[in-house]
């Protein structure tokens, strides 16, 4: 085990060195607050406590700090790994500033929604533990948001081959794993499950409707619909319910009705609207087609690198044919020479003849 630690440390430092200032700052803050947790109760001071988040206490700063608070070394490792994965896979597509905005939006929304959920649970049960004994902090909120973003950008990537698991199923699998840990008693509260679920939901809402990019705002492609997060048997019912919720949110002006606009490439500035496709979906399919083509070409090159026995036999046959005399090939390919007399009475021939010349009397 000890011999792998230097290698892991070297890979970690090299990966961290290639990231931006945003990723390095978040990782450094997580490590610093983990070390500080040995001397102070950082989850109480910087984590979201539902009873302290709302008036009259109003600890609003915890919405910004709960994501970088860790009390255990395993949680710190998961937190840093999540941030670094986002820096390696999402930051090249979005930029450092957009990644920072996504980090802030997901964590603030997840902390606020988690606090509201525990507040409503207290109103239904009158159990004060839901207000003052619960601490929402750590990596689960941003983990859920990052998995949703990876589903958007590389959802068809295969994570496991046996059994076959694609990246688009990662948000549901993460929630299932946290729920199993909670049922097994390995987690003290259900706060990580609530944070991960609300982080995934807030990340999807931001990426679906509000993220700005060069093609406009949001991503209305079919592969990123809310129903796509559920099994195929449940997708029609979930899609119908999600459509009703979205229509209600559009009426109360919380969400906008998205119009898909496409430039047909004409010299004029005319654009058209199509109901079933999206430019991001088309770009994603184009990338998948290019990837499949590159893999097929690579397999063809690998097969052609080793000659077969048939190729060797064909080469030997060609060498035998080239060793035969040129004269015999010409004799078989050209017609018999014709002897015609010119006006001077001399014999003409287009090839060399070895016959004896006629004698003159």
Automatic annotation (TrEMBL):
Segment forming the signal sequence: none
Gene: tmem115
Membrane topology term: Multi-pass membrane protein
Record field: transmembrane: 12-38, 58-87, 99-124, 130-149, 169-185, 191-210
Biased composition regions of type Polar residues, renumbered to the chain: 325-352
InterPro entries, sorted: Rhomboid-like_sf, TMEM115/Pdh1/Rbl19
Biological process annotations from GO: retrograde vesicle-mediated transport, Golgi to endoplasmic reticulum
Domain of life according to the entry: Eukaryota
Single GO cellular component term: membrane
Keywords assigned by UniProt, alphabetized: Membrane, Transmembrane, Transmembrane helix
Locations listed in the record: Membrane
Listed SMART domains: DUF1751
Keyword Ion transport listed: no
Region (Disordered): 301-361
Pfam families, A to Z: DUF1751
Ranges annotated as biased composition (Acidic residues): 309-320
Source lineage: Eukaryota, Metazoa, Chordata, Craniata, Vertebrata
UniProt key word Transmembrane helix: yes
Protein's name in the database: Tmem115 protein
